[in-house]
Amino acid sequence: MSPEARTAGTTGGPVGGTPPRTGSPEVPGRTAPGGGPLRYAVVVAGLLLALAAAATASLALGSVRIPPGQVLDALTGRSGPSPFRTIVLDVRLPRVLLGAVVGAGLAVVGAVLQALVRNRLADPFLLGISSGASAGAVLVLVLGGGAGLVGGVTTTLALPAGAFVGALLSLVLVYGLARTGGTLTSTRLVLAGVAVSYILSALATLLLVVAGRPEQFQEAMHWSLGGLGSARWDTLALPAAALAVGVGALLTLARPLDLLLVGEEEATVLGLDTARFRAAVFVLASLVTAVMVSASGAVGFVGLMAPHAARLAVGAPHRRLLPVAALGGALALVLADLAARTVAAPQDIPVGVLTALTGGPFFLWLMRRRPGPEGAAL
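^ thats the sequence. predicted structure below, dont judge the formating
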Protein backbone atom coordinates (compact mmCIF):
# COMPACT_ATOMS: atom_id res chain seq x y z
CA MET A 1 0.00 0.00 0.00
CA SER A 2 1.27 3.49 -0.84
CA PRO A 3 2.70 5.75 1.91
CA GLU A 4 -0.04 8.37 1.54
CA ALA A 5 -2.77 5.77 1.97
CA ARG A 6 -1.20 4.63 5.24
CA THR A 7 -0.79 8.24 6.32
CA ALA A 8 -4.43 9.03 5.59
CA GLY A 9 -5.43 6.12 7.73
CA THR A 10 -3.38 7.30 10.70
CA THR A 11 -2.89 11.04 10.52
CA GLY A 12 -4.42 11.91 7.08
CA GLY A 13 30.81 4.57 -32.61
CA PRO A 14 33.95 2.94 -32.09
CA VAL A 15 36.12 4.56 -29.44
CA GLY A 16 39.89 4.58 -29.57
CA GLY A 17 39.93 3.68 -33.26
CA THR A 18 39.00 5.37 -36.51
CA PRO A 19 36.46 8.13 -35.95
CA PRO A 20 33.08 7.63 -37.61
CA ARG A 21 32.15 9.46 -40.78
CA THR A 22 30.08 12.62 -40.57
CA GLY A 23 26.47 11.64 -40.17
CA SER A 24 27.30 8.25 -38.66
CA PRO A 25 24.49 7.09 -36.40
CA GLU A 26 27.10 6.28 -33.73
CA VAL A 27 27.76 9.99 -33.16
CA PRO A 28 24.93 11.39 -31.03
CA GLY A 29 23.10 14.54 -31.91
CA ARG A 30 23.97 15.05 -35.59
CA THR A 31 20.35 15.38 -36.68
CA ALA A 32 19.24 18.64 -35.05
CA PRO A 33 20.76 22.08 -35.67
CA GLY A 34 19.43 23.27 -32.32
CA GLY A 35 18.14 26.69 -33.43
CA GLY A 36 19.04 30.05 -31.95
CA PRO A 37 18.80 31.58 -28.47
CA LEU A 38 15.06 32.22 -28.83
CA ARG A 39 14.31 28.56 -29.58
CA TYR A 40 16.51 27.49 -26.69
CA ALA A 41 14.70 29.86 -24.30
CA VAL A 42 11.32 28.58 -25.51
CA VAL A 43 12.37 24.95 -24.98
CA VAL A 44 13.67 25.63 -21.45
CA ALA A 45 10.57 27.64 -20.51
CA GLY A 46 8.29 24.92 -21.89
CA LEU A 47 10.07 22.22 -19.91
CA LEU A 48 9.92 24.28 -16.72
CA LEU A 49 6.18 24.81 -17.15
CA ALA A 50 5.62 21.12 -17.91
CA LEU A 51 7.68 20.12 -14.88
CA ALA A 52 5.69 22.49 -12.65
CA ALA A 53 2.41 21.05 -13.97
CA ALA A 54 3.61 17.47 -13.47
CA ALA A 55 4.73 18.25 -9.92
CA THR A 56 1.39 19.85 -9.11
CA ALA A 57 -0.47 16.82 -10.46
CA SER A 58 1.79 14.51 -8.44
CA LEU A 59 0.98 16.40 -5.25
CA ALA A 60 -2.76 16.20 -5.87
CA LEU A 61 -3.18 12.69 -7.29
CA GLY A 62 -2.55 9.28 -5.82
CA SER A 63 -4.28 6.71 -3.68
CA VAL A 64 -5.69 9.70 -1.78
CA ARG A 65 -6.89 12.50 -4.06
CA ILE A 66 -6.41 15.99 -2.68
CA PRO A 67 -8.26 19.04 -4.04
CA PRO A 68 -5.93 21.60 -5.65
CA GLY A 69 -6.97 24.22 -3.12
CA GLN A 70 -5.89 21.97 -0.25
CA VAL A 71 -2.55 21.36 -1.98
CA LEU A 72 -1.97 25.11 -2.31
CA ASP A 73 -2.96 25.70 1.31
CA ALA A 74 -0.53 23.01 2.47
CA LEU A 75 2.32 24.45 0.42
CA THR A 76 1.73 28.02 1.56
CA GLY A 77 1.18 27.08 5.20
CA ARG A 78 -2.36 28.44 5.33
CA SER A 79 -3.82 25.11 6.43
CA GLY A 80 -3.52 23.82 9.97
CA PRO A 81 -2.55 20.28 10.91
CA SER A 82 -4.58 17.84 8.81
CA PRO A 83 -4.17 14.52 6.99
CA PHE A 84 -4.00 16.35 3.66
CA ARG A 85 -1.21 18.62 4.88
CA THR A 86 0.77 15.64 6.19
CA ILE A 87 0.41 13.77 2.89
CA VAL A 88 1.44 16.76 0.78
CA LEU A 89 4.40 17.98 2.85
CA ASP A 90 5.74 14.80 4.41
CA VAL A 91 4.97 12.13 1.80
CA ARG A 92 4.43 13.51 -1.69
CA LEU A 93 6.59 16.63 -1.85
CA PRO A 94 9.85 14.85 -0.90
CA ARG A 95 8.98 12.12 -3.40
CA VAL A 96 8.35 14.59 -6.22
CA LEU A 97 11.57 16.46 -5.50
CA LEU A 98 13.60 13.25 -5.29
CA GLY A 99 12.12 12.08 -8.59
CA ALA A 100 13.08 15.35 -10.26
CA VAL A 101 16.63 15.22 -8.87
CA VAL A 102 17.21 11.55 -9.76
CA GLY A 103 15.72 11.94 -13.24
CA ALA A 104 17.87 14.99 -13.93
CA GLY A 105 21.01 13.27 -12.66
CA LEU A 106 20.51 10.11 -14.72
CA ALA A 107 19.72 12.12 -17.85
CA VAL A 108 22.87 14.23 -17.53
CA VAL A 109 25.02 11.15 -16.95
CA GLY A 110 23.44 9.45 -19.96
CA ALA A 111 24.20 12.45 -22.19
CA VAL A 112 27.81 12.50 -21.04
CA LEU A 113 28.32 8.75 -21.46
CA GLN A 114 26.97 8.91 -25.00
CA ALA A 115 29.62 11.52 -25.80
CA LEU A 116 32.44 9.71 -24.00
CA VAL A 117 31.95 6.40 -25.82
CA ARG A 118 30.36 7.96 -28.93
CA ASN A 119 27.52 5.48 -28.86
CA ARG A 120 23.88 6.52 -29.06
CA LEU A 121 22.83 3.45 -27.03
CA ALA A 122 24.88 4.28 -23.94
CA ASP A 123 23.27 5.08 -20.60
CA PRO A 124 24.01 4.20 -16.93
CA PHE A 125 21.62 1.24 -16.96
CA LEU A 126 22.72 -0.38 -20.21
CA LEU A 127 26.43 0.02 -19.42
CA GLY A 128 26.03 -1.76 -16.09
CA ILE A 129 26.74 1.28 -13.90
CA SER A 130 23.30 1.25 -12.27
CA SER A 131 23.51 -2.50 -11.64
CA GLY A 132 26.96 -2.10 -10.13
CA ALA A 133 25.69 0.66 -7.87
CA SER A 134 22.72 -1.50 -6.86
CA ALA A 135 25.01 -4.44 -6.07
CA GLY A 136 27.20 -2.19 -3.93
CA ALA A 137 24.18 -0.87 -2.06
CA VAL A 138 22.86 -4.41 -1.48
CA LEU A 139 26.26 -5.44 -0.13
CA VAL A 140 26.09 -2.59 2.37
CA LEU A 141 22.60 -3.70 3.42
CA VAL A 142 23.79 -7.27 3.94
CA LEU A 143 26.87 -6.24 5.91
CA GLY A 144 24.81 -3.84 7.98
CA GLY A 145 22.30 -6.54 8.84
CA GLY A 146 19.48 -4.03 8.67
CA ALA A 147 20.73 -2.41 11.86
CA GLY A 148 21.37 0.95 10.22
CA LEU A 149 25.11 0.78 10.91
CA VAL A 150 28.00 -0.46 8.80
CA GLY A 151 31.26 -0.28 10.70
CA GLY A 152 29.90 2.55 12.81
CA VAL A 153 28.90 4.62 9.77
CA THR A 154 25.23 5.34 9.19
CA THR A 155 23.72 3.91 6.03
CA THR A 156 23.09 7.50 4.91
CA LEU A 157 26.80 7.60 4.07
CA ALA A 158 27.52 3.89 3.67
CA LEU A 159 24.91 3.26 0.95
CA PRO A 160 26.23 5.94 -1.44
CA ALA A 161 29.81 4.84 -0.73
CA GLY A 162 29.03 1.20 -1.49
CA ALA A 163 27.03 2.19 -4.55
CA PHE A 164 29.90 4.34 -5.84
CA VAL A 165 32.45 1.55 -5.48
CA GLY A 166 30.09 -0.88 -7.23
CA ALA A 167 29.35 1.58 -10.04
CA LEU A 168 33.01 2.38 -10.65
CA LEU A 169 34.11 -1.27 -10.60
CA SER A 170 31.28 -2.17 -12.97
CA LEU A 171 32.25 0.58 -15.39
CA VAL A 172 35.92 -0.45 -15.34
CA LEU A 173 34.93 -4.07 -15.94
CA VAL A 174 32.62 -3.25 -18.85
CA TYR A 175 35.19 -0.97 -20.44
CA GLY A 176 37.94 -3.56 -20.06
CA LEU A 177 35.84 -6.40 -21.48
CA ALA A 178 34.66 -4.34 -24.45
CA ARG A 179 38.06 -2.93 -25.39
CA THR A 180 39.99 -5.33 -27.62
CA GLY A 181 43.06 -4.59 -29.69
CA GLY A 182 43.06 -0.93 -28.67
CA THR A 183 39.54 -0.28 -29.98
CA LEU A 184 36.10 -0.22 -28.42
CA THR A 185 33.13 -1.06 -30.63
CA SER A 186 29.48 -0.36 -30.00
CA THR A 187 28.55 -4.03 -30.19
CA ARG A 188 31.07 -5.13 -27.57
CA LEU A 189 30.26 -2.17 -25.33
CA VAL A 190 26.52 -2.77 -25.15
CA LEU A 191 26.83 -6.56 -24.92
CA ALA A 192 29.47 -6.29 -22.19
CA GLY A 193 27.26 -3.85 -20.27
CA VAL A 194 24.22 -6.12 -20.47
CA ALA A 195 26.25 -9.19 -19.46
CA VAL A 196 27.89 -7.45 -16.50
CA SER A 197 24.51 -6.08 -15.44
CA TYR A 198 23.02 -9.59 -15.29
CA ILE A 199 26.06 -10.97 -13.45
CA LEU A 200 25.97 -8.25 -10.80
CA SER A 201 22.22 -8.67 -10.30
CA ALA A 202 22.75 -12.40 -9.79
CA LEU A 203 25.60 -11.76 -7.33
CA ALA A 204 23.43 -9.38 -5.34
CA THR A 205 20.70 -12.03 -5.08
CA LEU A 206 23.30 -14.64 -4.09
CA LEU A 207 24.56 -12.36 -1.33
CA LEU A 208 21.08 -12.13 0.13
CA VAL A 209 20.54 -15.89 -0.04
CA VAL A 210 23.89 -16.69 1.60
CA ALA A 211 23.33 -14.07 4.27
CA GLY A 212 20.20 -15.94 5.35
CA ARG A 213 18.16 -12.79 5.94
CA PRO A 214 14.89 -13.20 4.02
CA GLU A 215 13.57 -9.94 5.44
CA GLN A 216 16.13 -8.06 3.35
CA PHE A 217 14.71 -9.26 0.05
CA GLN A 218 12.17 -6.44 0.17
CA GLU A 219 14.96 -3.89 0.51
CA ALA A 220 16.88 -5.58 -2.31
CA MET A 221 13.83 -5.39 -4.58
CA HIS A 222 13.86 -1.63 -4.01
CA TRP A 223 17.30 -1.41 -5.57
CA SER A 224 16.67 -3.87 -8.39
CA LEU A 225 13.32 -2.44 -9.57
CA GLY A 226 13.71 1.20 -8.60
CA GLY A 227 11.26 3.28 -6.62
CA LEU A 228 10.80 6.58 -4.83
CA GLY A 229 8.54 5.34 -2.04
CA SER A 230 11.25 5.72 0.61
CA ALA A 231 11.76 9.42 -0.14
CA ARG A 232 12.07 11.62 2.94
CA TRP A 233 13.37 15.09 3.53
CA ASP A 234 16.60 13.74 5.00
CA THR A 235 17.28 11.68 1.86
CA LEU A 236 17.13 14.68 -0.47
CA ALA A 237 20.25 16.60 0.53
CA LEU A 238 22.89 14.23 -0.83
CA PRO A 239 21.27 13.61 -4.27
CA ALA A 240 20.57 17.33 -4.67
CA ALA A 241 24.19 18.19 -3.81
CA ALA A 242 25.51 15.51 -6.19
CA LEU A 243 23.30 16.85 -8.98
CA ALA A 244 24.37 20.47 -8.45
CA VAL A 245 28.08 19.66 -8.23
CA GLY A 246 27.98 17.08 -11.03
CA VAL A 247 26.08 19.22 -13.52
CA GLY A 248 28.17 22.27 -12.62
CA ALA A 249 31.40 20.36 -13.18
CA LEU A 250 30.20 18.80 -16.43
CA LEU A 251 29.09 22.18 -17.80
CA THR A 252 32.66 23.39 -17.39
CA LEU A 253 33.72 20.39 -19.50
CA ALA A 254 31.25 21.11 -22.31
CA ARG A 255 33.91 21.99 -24.90
CA PRO A 256 36.02 18.82 -24.40
CA LEU A 257 32.83 16.76 -24.59
CA ASP A 258 31.98 18.48 -27.86
CA LEU A 259 35.45 17.67 -29.18
CA LEU A 260 34.92 13.98 -28.54
CA LEU A 261 31.88 14.03 -30.82
CA VAL A 262 33.99 14.91 -33.86
CA GLY A 263 36.46 12.08 -33.25
CA GLU A 264 39.20 11.03 -30.87
CA GLU A 265 42.04 11.79 -33.27
CA GLU A 266 40.72 15.29 -33.97
CA ALA A 267 40.28 15.92 -30.22
CA THR A 268 43.86 14.83 -29.57
CA VAL A 269 45.18 17.11 -32.32
CA LEU A 270 43.32 20.00 -30.70
CA GLY A 271 45.11 19.36 -27.41
CA LEU A 272 42.75 17.10 -25.44
CA ASP A 273 44.28 14.23 -23.46
CA THR A 274 41.41 11.92 -24.28
CA ALA A 275 42.49 9.00 -22.06
CA ARG A 276 42.90 11.13 -18.93
CA PHE A 277 39.77 13.14 -19.69
CA ARG A 278 37.66 9.99 -20.16
CA ALA A 279 38.94 8.46 -16.93
CA ALA A 280 38.13 11.60 -14.92
CA VAL A 281 34.64 11.99 -16.39
CA PHE A 282 33.91 8.27 -15.97
CA VAL A 283 34.67 8.62 -12.25
CA LEU A 284 32.45 11.71 -11.97
CA ALA A 285 29.63 9.99 -13.88
CA SER A 286 29.92 6.92 -11.63
CA LEU A 287 29.76 9.08 -8.51
CA VAL A 288 26.62 10.89 -9.64
CA THR A 289 24.98 7.62 -10.71
CA ALA A 290 25.87 5.96 -7.41
CA VAL A 291 24.27 8.71 -5.35
CA MET A 292 21.11 8.62 -7.47
CA VAL A 293 20.86 4.81 -7.27
CA SER A 294 21.44 4.85 -3.52
CA ALA A 295 18.37 7.08 -3.22
CA SER A 296 16.04 5.50 -5.79
CA GLY A 297 17.36 2.10 -6.81
CA ALA A 298 18.17 1.17 -10.41
CA VAL A 299 15.86 3.19 -12.67
CA GLY A 300 16.62 2.33 -16.28
CA PHE A 301 16.33 4.10 -19.62
CA VAL A 302 15.82 7.67 -18.34
CA GLY A 303 19.47 8.31 -19.16
CA LEU A 304 18.88 6.94 -22.66
CA MET A 305 15.65 8.67 -23.66
CA ALA A 306 16.03 12.17 -22.19
CA PRO A 307 19.36 13.06 -23.88
CA HIS A 308 18.06 12.04 -27.32
CA ALA A 309 14.90 14.09 -26.88
CA ALA A 310 17.04 17.03 -25.75
CA ARG A 311 19.29 16.75 -28.83
CA LEU A 312 16.28 16.82 -31.13
CA ALA A 313 15.17 20.03 -29.41
CA VAL A 314 18.41 22.01 -28.98
CA GLY A 315 21.17 20.13 -30.80
CA ALA A 316 24.38 18.46 -29.65
CA PRO A 317 26.53 21.21 -28.01
CA HIS A 318 26.75 20.19 -24.37
CA ARG A 319 26.47 23.67 -22.88
CA ARG A 320 22.92 23.76 -24.28
CA LEU A 321 22.25 20.04 -24.12
CA LEU A 322 22.97 19.24 -20.46
CA PRO A 323 20.47 21.69 -18.84
CA VAL A 324 17.72 20.62 -21.26
CA ALA A 325 18.49 16.94 -20.70
CA ALA A 326 18.33 17.50 -16.94
CA LEU A 327 14.90 19.13 -17.20
CA GLY A 328 13.67 16.41 -19.54
CA GLY A 329 14.90 13.65 -17.23
CA ALA A 330 13.28 15.32 -14.23
CA LEU A 331 9.97 15.62 -16.09
CA ALA A 332 10.11 12.02 -17.30
CA LEU A 333 10.71 10.52 -13.86
CA VAL A 334 8.14 12.72 -12.10
CA LEU A 335 5.52 11.61 -14.66
CA ALA A 336 6.61 7.97 -14.39
CA ASP A 337 6.30 8.10 -10.61
CA LEU A 338 2.88 9.71 -10.88
CA ALA A 339 1.76 6.81 -13.08
CA ALA A 340 3.35 4.33 -10.66
CA ARG A 341 1.25 5.72 -7.80
CA THR A 342 -2.04 6.01 -9.66
CA VAL A 343 -2.31 3.13 -12.15
CA ALA A 344 -2.85 0.47 -9.48
CA ALA A 345 -3.65 2.65 -6.45
CA PRO A 346 -3.37 2.14 -3.52
CA GLN A 347 -0.46 -0.10 -4.54
CA ASP A 348 2.77 1.43 -5.81
CA ILE A 349 4.23 -0.01 -9.00
CA PRO A 350 8.04 0.14 -9.01
CA VAL A 351 8.90 3.12 -11.14
CA GLY A 352 11.73 1.19 -12.79
CA VAL A 353 9.15 -1.19 -14.25
CA LEU A 354 7.35 1.66 -16.01
CA THR A 355 10.53 3.26 -17.33
CA ALA A 356 11.58 -0.14 -18.69
CA LEU A 357 8.20 -0.61 -20.40
CA THR A 358 8.64 2.69 -22.23
CA GLY A 359 12.43 2.65 -22.56
CA GLY A 360 12.68 -0.87 -23.97
CA PRO A 361 10.72 -0.10 -27.15
CA PHE A 362 12.60 3.20 -27.48
CA PHE A 363 15.89 1.29 -27.27
CA LEU A 364 14.77 -1.09 -30.03
CA TRP A 365 13.65 1.79 -32.23
CA LEU A 366 16.91 3.63 -31.67
CA MET A 367 18.92 0.50 -32.41
CA ARG A 368 17.21 0.06 -35.79
CA ARG A 369 17.16 3.75 -36.75
CA ARG A 370 19.68 4.50 -39.51
CA PRO A 371 21.71 1.39 -38.64
CA GLY A 372 25.36 1.27 -39.58
CA PRO A 373 27.34 -1.98 -39.66
CA GLU A 374 27.43 -2.24 -35.88
CA GLY A 375 23.85 -1.10 -35.44
CA ALA A 376 22.80 -3.97 -37.66
CA ALA A 377 24.97 -6.35 -35.68
CA LEU A 378 23.22 -5.37 -32.51
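The CA atoms of residues 156 and 337 lie 23 Å apart.
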